[in-house]
Amino acid sequence: MVYDARDLVEETLLPEGDPLLITKGTPMDVVLSFLKLTGYTRVDFCYDSFQWAKRGFVLDIYSDELYRLDFDEEDRVESIRIVDSETQMSIRRTEYATLWTRQIPVRPIDRMTQAVIYDSERTYRELRAVEVELTFPIRKVSPVKIDKFISVPSFSIDDLTAYKGKMVLVTQFPEVFSRKLGWPVFDSISAGLASGEKRFLVHGRIRMPFSLDGFDIHIDREGLGWKVGHRRSLELSWHGLKVGEPVLHVDRGVGVYDGIEYVEGKPYFSISYKDGHVLVPLERSQKLVRVPSTMSIDSLGPARWSRKSRALQQRALKMRSFLENRFKQKKSTQSFTIEPDEEIESAFAQSFQFEETSDQKQATEELHAWLAIPHPEEALIIGESGVGKTEVLMRAAVAVASAGYKAVIVVPTRVLVDQYMAAYSERIQSCGLLLSDDPALPWDILVGTHSLLKKQLYDDKLALVIFDEEQKFGVTHKNWFQEHFPWVKVIFSSATPIPRTFFLARRGYVKLIRMHELPYGRQKVTVFADEYSPDLVRKVLSDELDRGGLVIYIHPTIEGIDLRALELQQMFLDAEIEVLHARMTDKRIKSIFKKLQEGKIDILVATTIMEAGVDLPIANTIVVEDATHLGVSQMYQLKGRVGRNSVKGYAWFLYPPTASPATRSRIHSTVKLLNYSDSYALAELDTRYRGIGEIFGIRQHGLVKQEDVFAVDALLEQTYREEETEIVSWPIKMNIPEWILPEPERSNLLKDILDADTERELMQLFLMFKDLVGHIPEESKALFAYSLLKVLGNKRGITMIKFNSRGFQLVRENEIQDFKTGSVSSWDAIFAAVECLGGAKEWFEILKA
To answer: Is the pTM of this model over 0.85?
Structure first.
């Protein structure tokens, strides 16, 4: 097990009593009998102790931990996994599970008998902070660089096969490696060492390689070259279908989703209208869009919806025409081809004092290729607060400056300018470049606010403009540089981009770069919503002060903020409290931030000036006094001000006792999204609810009526979907059976699979699905194969894939290619089509398994 120092003294409830020990081979009926006798509660998904769930071929049981049991054909336990109850995804394998009948409080430190300490200097410092002294045997290991592969940390199967020394590979995908290498898989490093094996695999994650007992303990960061990123967590998609809720059919109008209905054994999405219902084949899932529950239900009569849809269709087509003309215009304009100085780039990268995440590495590589394009392109970097977007932006700026050109970084507040200068001035100067916040001084990279939008400040060497916290700028600001310097490239960065920008990126007019991997040691911030009361505020602040952290308290207005600070001071007489808002002088703001960095402030009472990208690693809890006037984007940004270190972060969004039921419901719903959705999902939600705005105007979101927002977005999306690959005469039944997953997860996953745009997204869905249900039935594999062929066909410009008794045809405009598989097996034809279209080899393994 891996523990943070603070986790060692966290008291938890540990079940005990007369346990049932489950190992490989334990019969299912023995497990079910124990659950019944001891009073475990059956649910769809386990989130609390003493719950159990059955889905497909797995049993989930929450005892001291959440266990997931896979069963073989004889209903005996085949494997056991430990699961994260928040994401519902597996963390690691284990050899046994212990089911208990009652609970007692216990600390992990009280149960430990030995430990391996990693990075001892840092670990002992953290242990002293929580007043822990280790009294049992320990061993110390340190992070080391292991130069034994062609490229570290990325390596190939050939590298591993040729390696003859002692090695442990820690990976999230041990089964995949085991199939290819034949190495055994162990639950822990110590178990593998005790086995006598020279090379083996362990399911898990570590931060850096190290050596132990002559073994190289190494990390897999790329997953055999198949970059699936983090496993997708179980969450209700905002665009998913929910039984009893309204749904928009782009050809029929708004109806009510009734669930999956079968006709002659074939599944359909069933939609009810005022005067009838419609069955939609699974293959037409893109025509369905979930809409708010406030929208009225239409009749099936053609008059009302057809009249309205014609007008909205014209608007959608006008938007698309404008976008395509603008895109062609940019392609005809020449820009600089950036060829960075490798020595300067390397020096800047090596000065980064933290470990680079795989997402930072990937984003940097993508921007390198993007900077080499000889046209004035635009890019959007989207990622949660704290994933390291700023470092990626600065590396792009350094790449441009090292090539002899100039880069400008525009931020919304002076606070962020000072933050950039403090974090990067010395690093950039050490590389022989100049970072400045004063355009009158020499500079290679200039950082500032809106005041930088002055033509006389720049010459023809300007090559790159970066808008950090993009959501804080208007269209006029973001277009200013390209209007005056049409050759420049522009990068937008945000955790919550404006709907207009997000739509352009999603449709390919702006390059989209997604980041979601938090740096090692970071924990997910937990978000709460509640009614404001002095007692609640006192408890939340007291809990944070007791663990030595900083509290950010957000007051809704500048008026009354000093009085609130005095009231908090009365609650906590010994606490150091400061006030921060936008009307303060720059000198005063800098003074407060200096005290914050030095750890001299316990409670910071501020306005929403804290919203835009302020980086305070010592802040662990944020309390928003009145969230009634905040949108999804603002709440997400405020949540991102905490949890930027290894300590667990908390965000509280409060509302006054006078808040209406609708307002309370909205805040609680948003908090649920903040807990279970990433920044990309929230950007999709924001776009859907606010609309994409005026593509050819200056409004960045919104249309007059909410119904129009959904309809125009759906119709515009449909104009692109109509050009996608059509699959005709699909030979195998496809579905997710009702006994595999409950609603609404079943309908959500069906639609997510069918609407997937990339192989990576589809692979993430497959890994999530397999984790949740164990063995995947053939009809569900067929669903993934169908969507995979659509993704591959779209990527390669295929108009139609048509299956027949001899094999299949590929149609590309007027060209038809016949492929004969020489087999009567439908799967042979499907695999041949996947191979023909260049599908990844991993698909053959997982679909044939």
So the answer is: no
